Structures are given as C-alpha cells and as structure tokens.
Amino acid sequence: MSPEPSQNGDEKPQKPLHELLTHTLVDIYVGEENSHYPLHEKLLCYHSPYFASIFYNKSNSSSRTKEFGLPEVDDTAFGLFVGWLYSRALRYPEQESDIGPLLDLYFLASKLQITALETDIVDTVRAFYHNNETYPGLRRVQYVYANTDEDNVMREMMVGSVARFLTLSDSIPEHWAKALKKNGQLSVDIIRSIQEWHLEARNVPDARDASVDRGRNTFKGPVGFSAVEGGSEMEDVKEESEMEDGHVNGNGAA
What we know:
Blueprint: H1 17-20, E1 25-30, E2 35-40, H2 41-47, H3 49-55, H4 62-65, E3 67-70, H5 75-87, H6 99-111, H7 115-131, E4 134-135, H8 138-147, H9 153-168, H10 174-182, H11 184-195, E5 238-239, E6 241-242, E7 248-249
Parallel strand pairs: 1-3, 4-5
Antiparallel strand pairs: 1-2, 6-7
C-alpha cells in the first residue's frame, strides 16, 4: 500500500525506518554521469511528495519501470540526501567550506518538497555560524538569493545574520557596499529584517533631535556616510568569506 505523503512537508508523526524498508526498490540516476542510486521506494516516497507523485502515479511511465533520472541534480548533493534519508541526520560542518554542499542539499530538498530536510539544514547552518561567532559571507548570501524565492527560510536566516553583522559593525565593508548598491532587494530585505527586531524607539538614535550625537565626531576623523564605507570592521566578529583558493578568510574581504 502506498504511503500518503505529507501535504505540508513531513510535518507528521514519523514512521520507524524498518516500516519503510520494503522489498520494492527504485533506481534513481543522478547527474551528468548517471550515478546510480537504488533506493527503497516506500521510504523515498514517504519523505518526498515529489517522488511520490512520480512513482505512485500510474499514468507515469516511471511508476512501471521504477526508474527516474535527475541529470540536472548535483551528485554530491544527492549523496548527502541519501545519507539523510536513511539516518535522518546531517553531519555538522567542520569548517565554512562545508556550508556550500549543505546549501546545494537545501536547494535539492526544496525541489524534492522535503520540508523536514530543509529545516534540518537551516538549523545546522544557523548553528555553525552562531557557534563559531561568524557570519555568512557575501558569496554565500548571493548564492542563496540566486537559488531561492522571497520568504524562503534560508534566505531570511542569511539576511537576518547579515543585518546584525552590518548593524553592529563600525563600517560597511567595501564589497558589501558595492553589493547593496547593485542589489536593491537585498538592501530592502536587510531593512525588513531590522524592522522585525521591533526595537523600542528609545533605543534608536533620533537624528531630528539636535541634542543627540549621531556619530559625526570631527575629532575622530572624517565625518558623514561616506566615511562608513571601506573602514575597519569590528574586531570581535567575523564574516566568513571563501577565497578563490578555497580557504576561509575571516576578515570579510571578497
């Protein structure tokens, strides 16, 4: 009997793994190399409404052949998905470079309509940056924006982190200043994120009040907004940014 996939993305009591490991297997072929993954049909379709609509749809030829190809999917990401499928666990990233594969897995989870996996990945990425007292770099944020839509949870987590990073910094790193000038949506989203903090008015400087110092101190050097761009960043936080050689640069340079 076919399991009923969740309509709201796995938010349902989970069946034990042994109940989902039936005899019927399906063959999934992934990537340009057609990497072969024989998977338990019931387990796969239980977690993925996407696959359930393929293998439990009698009008679909794949329901008869028990084969399906995903040539556009990254092989590494699918391998991570298979690991999660049978263990319901993700490996915690040891370094920032491990975030990239997790993001690819996140985009795949969205395609396969597996909300539980999406949530696990967001929680894992969030915990990594928080535990390491770092923030997502510009390239990570741009990659997420290029592969997600508005109101996406990963996008909101990333932009919320950036909003905090920029708000607490003494300056705007040059590469961030350039990106914000080019990407109006990112700039708007940062303001939205700050608004969600629901700050009390008394905690926000009022530029209309002449008695309030809003930071234009001539004794500290240049004044005005232009002095904020390209200056030194806070010393006690870091923005994680991958360099072209693959090493992590903690000073926020692109």
